[in-house]
């Protein structure tokens, strides 16, 4: 893994000018996993629980090395499987530690039982996910079905599209999840390989700056031998709906906190993240690609190229899947004539025979007076690259849909329908 | 006459993924010789694995083969054996797969004494994912996630199997190539859960980090520390310090699970018969 500082000091200062980056800090050349590891180090995590699986596992190798070098006061614990791994993170968080864990693909879903107890226990664990296709058969490529399968388990869930965003999300997610108005676990997702293993420039702030942004965790109901209390009791059915309502309120209550935290981050670190949804060249767009995760990086180039040909296309990238930013997206999406959702996941037999995100987008638009034409692009499945020409094909379908007010299909399979 | 391995190898599946110096190929050849010795029919033999380097073995051999989820070989094989008790079912896999993520299934297969043969290749590391420490990484040894030495105590796989109830438990090393097929043959013929632990070499992920200058050195270490269980009976505790016992460590006859299950069905369906 190439995670070396390439340029620091004056050279880095010069680069900032050339690349139009006004952020202060050291510039490192980091993969998505390297960015996560450095951010976790600076977040001063207390416990990491690991289990090896590609491609996320590099973050654990880096963290164990940082702990061994004394760069980070960390308890590094190895689970006997992902199920045990999540149990360790749950226990650590219950005891008041800033805990992290992570996984990929089948590892993410093997731990499925433990997600709801962690979120229901309001333990603000952070999980680094580098997406990987689920079995069968064994495949190493990135597909989002692994983490999306956990969307109903009460965790916050969002994707970064560059190593820099991974770094920044790591800090923002902890601050949001540990906010006393929230106390929820977070899945900090990045595409396997495309983000996790390809190094890019990452601006790393100083430790003091991170400390002032992210205060130490204060968990009021931490297990403490001097002040014993019980976690995870058995309840009666009549108490269930109250508990569920509390959990929904916690999740819905994250919106103002996300807004506040992301804006504070932007102010401190000179970034310009939209708290919920990134809009790329959307101001005069008639049709847009809707996307989540790393393929947005390619998608933006494709949009540039199509715009050069005079197409009125834009790209909308959601930074969150849970909570789903319904109101924000309804405002943004309802003004377009056509929307194509890039689905790097699959939901076999779903309504419209699309993936998971289209279901959410369709539900979002249902309340709107203007309902754009909506279709899905099943792309990047099995971890395949989504090429520029495939984005151009999507652009053509959307241009046609905007003109006609309809599409031939509710879901286009890239690799089948475009050949 | 040389042994014809190709008869049992799937055409087009080679070359394999194993690194130069890895012992998994030696174990695979031993397994093939054992199957040949037992005269098993290809279509009545199943080889089941989990995930990992050792678990790639079933892909190369021409039997009924299944590459299941990480750690699930014993669970999957239990279902298979229950559905078709006359089928010979063999599990292959590594230490991380078998006794970490699959540890629960492994001990319960041992407890039930179901008629499986489990060949477990113990190379002390998660090789495929980049050399993370497993429950069989020796204490103080180095792995990618224990850069200053492993603080954890280990599982002794053979002792674990005996303790859990397996009725045939044997151990050898990848150095002792001819013993591998002898022990697997005996395991296949044994009625009940048979565990054959083979200490294996992972030069790439384990050897390099633990100051083994070559595979030969790793194999020589296995040769030096291996003491046949028969010879060990005549040795003192001091002489046995740092050694590992090889050969058949445990063998007993106990009711086999599929047979017990069939008996119960028979009893319930025919209450008058004895």
Distance between the termini of chain A: 37 Å
Contiguous runs where pLDDT drops below 50 for at least 5 residues of chain A: 1-22
Rounded average pLDDT of chain A: 93
Overall radius of gyration of chain A: 21 Å
Biggest beta sheet summary of chain B = 8 strands, mixed
What's the number of extended β-strand segments of chain A?
14
The side-by-side strand order for the widest beta sheet of chain A comes to 3-2-4-5-7-6
Low-confidence segments of chain B, given as residue ranges, are none
Give the C-alpha Rg of chain B: 19 Å
The CATH topology of chain B, please?
A: Rossmann fold
General description of the model:
- The complex is a heterodimer of chains A (419) and B (274).
- Chain A has 419 residues and is of the alpha/beta class.
- Chain A folds into 2 domains: 6-266, Rossmann fold; 277-413, Rossmann fold (3-Layer(aba) Sandwich), CATH 3.40.50.920.
- Chain A is 40% helix and 16% strand.
- A 6-stranded parallel sheet of chain A has the order 3-2-4-5-7-6, with helices on both faces.
- In chain A, strand 6 (156-159), helix 8 (163-177) and strand 7 (186-191) form a beta-alpha-beta unit.
- In chain A, helix 2 packs parallel to helix 3 (58-68), helix 4 (82-94) runs parallel beside helix 6 (112-120) and helix 12 (295-308) packs across helix 15.
- Mean pLDDT of chain A is 93; it is low at 1-22.
- With 274 residues, chain B is of the alpha/beta class.
- Chain B has 12 helices and 8 strands.
- Chain B starts with 23 loop residues before the first helix and ends in a 5-residue tail after the last helix.
- Chain B has an 8-stranded mixed sheet with strand order 2-1-3-4-6-5-8-7, sandwiched between helices.
- In chain B, 38% of the residues lie in helices and 17% in strands.
- Chain A binds chain B through residues 50-54, 57-58, 60-61, 64-65, 68, 76, 78, 80-82, 106-107, 110, 135, 137-138, and chain B through 51, 67, 69-71, 96, 100-103, 126, 128-130, 132-133, 135, 144-148, 152.
């Amino acid at each position: 893994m190439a995670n070396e500082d390439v340029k620091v000091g004056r050279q880095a200062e010069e680069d900032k000018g050339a690349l139009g980056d006004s952020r202060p800090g050291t510039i490192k050349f980091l993969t998505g996993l390297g960015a996560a590891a450095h951010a976790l180090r600076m977040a001063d995590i207390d416990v990491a629980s690991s289990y090896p699986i590609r491609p996320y596992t590099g973050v654990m190798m880096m963290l164990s090395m940082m702990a061994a070098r004394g760069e980070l006061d960390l308890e590094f614990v190895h689970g006997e499987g992902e199920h045990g791994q999540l149990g360790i993170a749950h226990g650590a968080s219950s005891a008041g530690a800033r805990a992290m864990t992570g996984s990929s693909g089948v590892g993410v879903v093997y731990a499925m039982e433990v997600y709801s107890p962690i979120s229901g226990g309001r333990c603000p664990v952070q999980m680094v996910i580098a997406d990987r296709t689920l079995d069968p058969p064994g495949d190493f490529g990135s597909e989002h079905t692994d983490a999306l399968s956990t969307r109903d388990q009460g965790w916050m869930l969002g994707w970064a599209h560059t190593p820099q965003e991974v770094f920044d999300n790591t800090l923002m997610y902890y601050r949001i999840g540990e906010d006393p108005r929230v106390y929820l676990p977070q899945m900090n997702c990045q595409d396997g390989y495309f983000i996790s293993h390809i190094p890019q420039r990452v601006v790393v702030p100083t430790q003091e700056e991170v400390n002032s942004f992210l205060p130490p965790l204060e968990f009021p109901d931490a297990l403490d031998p001097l002040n014993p209390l019980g976690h995870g009791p058995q309840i009666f059915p009549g108490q269930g709906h109250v508990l569920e309502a509390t959990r929904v309120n916690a999740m819905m209550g994250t919106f103002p906190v996300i807004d506040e935290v992301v804006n504070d981050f932007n102010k401190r670190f000179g970034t310009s993240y939209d708290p919920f949804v990134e809009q790329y060249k959307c101001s005069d767009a008639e049709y847009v690609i809707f996307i989540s995760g790393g393929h947005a990086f390619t998608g933006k180039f494709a949009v540039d190229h199509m715009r050069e040909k005079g197409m009125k296309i834009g790209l909308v990238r959601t930074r969150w899947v849970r909570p789903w930013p319904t109101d924000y997206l309804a405002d943004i999406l309802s003004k377009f004539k056509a929307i194509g959702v890039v689905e790097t996941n699959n939901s076999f037999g779903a309504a419209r025979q699309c993936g998971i995100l289209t279901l959410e987008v369709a539900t979002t638009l249902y309340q709107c007076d203007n309902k754009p034409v909506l279709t899905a692009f099943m792309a990047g499945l099995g971890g395949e690259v989504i090429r520029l020409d495939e984005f151009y094909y999507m652009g053509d379908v959307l241009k046609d849909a905007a003109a006609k007010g309809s599409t031939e299909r509710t879901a286009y399979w890239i690799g089948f329908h475009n050949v | 006459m040389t042994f014809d391995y190709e008869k049992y190898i799937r055409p087009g599946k080679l070359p394999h993924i194993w690194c130069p110096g890895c012992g998994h190929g030696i174990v695979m050849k031993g397994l093939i010789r054992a199957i040949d010795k037992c005269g098993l029919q290809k279509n009545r033999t199943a080889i089941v694995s989990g995930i990992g380097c050792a678990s790639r073995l079933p892909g190369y051999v021409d039997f009924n083969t299944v590459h299941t989820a990480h750690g699930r070989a014993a669970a999957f094989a239990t279902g298979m054996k229950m559905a078709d008790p006359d089928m010979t079912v063999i599990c292959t896999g590594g230490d991380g797969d078998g006794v970490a993520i699959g540890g629960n299934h492994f001990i319960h297969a041992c407890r039930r004494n179901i008629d499986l043969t489990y060949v477990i290749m113990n190379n002390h590391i998660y090789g495929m994912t980049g050399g993370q420490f497993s429950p069989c990484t020796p204490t103080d040894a180095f792995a990618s996630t224990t850069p200053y030495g492993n603080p954890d105590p280990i599982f002794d796989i053979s002792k674990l199997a005996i303790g859990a109830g397996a009725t045939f438990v044997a151990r050898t090393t990848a150095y002792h190539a001819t013993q591998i097929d002898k022990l697997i043959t005996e395991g296949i013929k044994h009625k009940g859960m048979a565990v054959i632990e083979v200490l294996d070499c992972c030069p790439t992920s384990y050897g390099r980090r633990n100051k083994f200058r070559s595979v030969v050195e790793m194999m020589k270490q296995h040769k030096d520390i291996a003491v046949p269980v028969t010879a060990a009976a005549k040795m003192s505790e001091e002489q046995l310090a740092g050694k590992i016992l090889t050969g058949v460590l445990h063998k007993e006859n106990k009711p086999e699970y599929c047979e017990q299950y069939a008996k119960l069905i028979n009893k319930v369906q025919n209450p008058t018969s004895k």
